[in-house]
Amino acid sequence: MNIDFHFHVKLSKKTDFSMDHFNEMLDEARDQGLQAITLTEHFNTRRFDEVYGTLDRMLPGNNHYYDRDGFKIFTGMEVDVAEGGHILVSGPKDALLEIRALLEPHTAAGSFIGLAELFELCEPRGMMVIGGHPFRESNHLYHVDRELLRRFDAFDLNGKDLHEIGIQENIALVLPLGAELGVPVVAGSDAHQMFQVGCVYNVLPGDYETVAELKAAIRAGACKRVISPSLHLQVRAAGAVKKLLKKKVEVEPV
């Protein structure tokens, strides 16, 4: 299975969910050779409930993933924590939405949940918890207490950071952190816009029906990360187009 563990289906937090944009993103993912994604839309995006509410109406699925003509969309979200990092939480949809409801008082800056408390919500519910872009200057995690960092199921080798920090430079930061703590590293494109889709992804043997199965495969060392030779161009193009589209969409009446 070729899968991206950090994937957005909205252009930005301020825009509404659009099936047209969703379908464009998924079409590109399939064209790039992916068979699955983990949907990690921001937990405090505008009208978060519309994302999964719309997909419930538009796509067949179970409590673990939606099926779009054989392409799997595993359920998840990206959560801001008080320490400043971004956390990728994925797992059964009912448990995910329960956690999201509990996070409602913590959606604004200044009220974000602490990382330890987030683990306490996620671990009993069987979620996979990935530390997003741990060395990003604006939202890093490397400074957090090592015992907390060891609780992650994986760290995110992030497409945007590979571009901005440098491919070899970012690898030289993230992989040693994972090795030091005994935490695997997986790739995530962090795509919000189609040009960034496929800049990085993961190859796992076989097929998977649940996030728990994915987590077990990652822990077993079965995950191979792939970095596109056109990563820099893809991320630059996506950033330029995203700025133009956000400017257009966010000024329109809502």
TrEMBL record:
SUPFAM superfamilies: PHP domain-like. It holds the Pfam family PHP. Residues 4-84 form the PHP domain. One of its GO terms (molecular function) is catalytic activity. This is Histidinol-phosphatase. It comes from Paenibacillus rhizosphaerae.
